[in-house]
Amino acid sequence: MTEHKHNAESQAGTPETAAEPSAPQASGDGEPARAEADIDPTAALRAEIADLKDRLMRSIAEAENLRKRAEREVRDAGQYAISKFARDILSVGDNMRRALDTVGAEARAAADATFVALLEGVELTERELLNVLERHGVKRIDPKGARFDPNLHQAMFEVPDESVPAGTVVQVVQPGYTIGERCLRPAMVGISRGGPRPAARQDGEPAAGEEATGGRIDRTA
Q1: Number of domains composing the chain
Q2: Is the pTM of this model over 0.85?
Q3: Residue 126: which domain range?
Q4: Is residue 8 part of a domain?
Q5: How far, CA to CA in Å, does 51 sit from each of 55, 58, 63, 76, 203?
Q6: pLDDT tens figures, 135-192
Q7: Which of 136, 171, 205 is the last residue of a domain?
């Protein structure tokens, strides 16, 4: 009877013993809260401010780039809008110059007053046309004696001439024109060959004379 009672008491105490291992879990549940408490809120706020400041600076820089690009496009549109018209009107000036060149000095000296007045009128018209074009940013290129530039000149032929450096413009067949910073029409020229070799360009382009006929870089407006 006594032994049976002892066994019953032992069995009754078993649930309490089995429940004891669950006690440490309570202490483990508090560790995430302590970890969150260890984070410095000031440092987190500073990091967030730095990130927002970086984003703001990037947005400002991007907006500034867009503004400059828009201004450049508007400026170019205004400056180069007349490119096609200006290129077409150049033939008028070319024809006036050809007409004047057909009259030699002797013929002009022997001409009567009426013909001389006509020539002077054509010359005046040509000058006025060039002035109007220049007021709109179109300038004439007369490169005789200059070094050949493939960006502004188109080599039509070569002339043997050892008195000047190779690649020097010795004859202008047709003058060229620029509009703003662009080439509106390249000057058609004849260049020398056989002379001293010019020094290489500082901008990395080949020396004049190395560009054969048709070697012009097309950068027309």
Answers
A1: 2
A2: no
A3: 83-136
A4: no
A5: 6, 11, 18, 38, 42
A6: 988 999 889 999 999 999 999 999 998 888 999 999 999 999 999 889 999 999 999 9
A7: 136
